[in-house]
Amino acid sequence: MAKKTKKIARREWTAADIKELKAHSKARTPVSKFAKMTKRTEGALRQKALVLGIGLGHQR
Questions:
Q1: Could you tell me which of 25, 30, 16 has the C-alpha nearest to residue 54?
Q2: What whole-number distance in Å separates Cα of residue 30 and Cα of residue 44?
Q3: CA dist., res. 12 & res. 56, Å (int)
Q4: Quick one: which of 3, 8, 21, 54 has the most CB atoms within 10 Å?
């Protein structure tokens, strides 16, 4: 039997989400902690930070 895969729930980035991402970047909040707070994956947060050109995590 084939395994059932979990459907990926994609959420758009709102202006408030981006503002919060920038604030946590400046405060140097650990990415894992911030990921749980926003209910997004670490990869999603890092990718959005890369697109915005802001530092996030250990590669500042």
A1: 25
A2: 14
A3: 20
A4: 21
Closest CA to 22 of 56, 51, 58, 47: 56
pLDDT tens-digit map of 37-48: 999 999 999 999
pLDDT tens string 2-53: 677 877 778 899 999 999 999 999 999 899 999 999 999 999 999 999 999 9
- In this structure, the dihedral spanned by the alpha carbons of residues 24, 28, 29 and 34, taken in order and rounded to 10 degrees, is 50
Q: What does the chain come to in residues?
A: 60
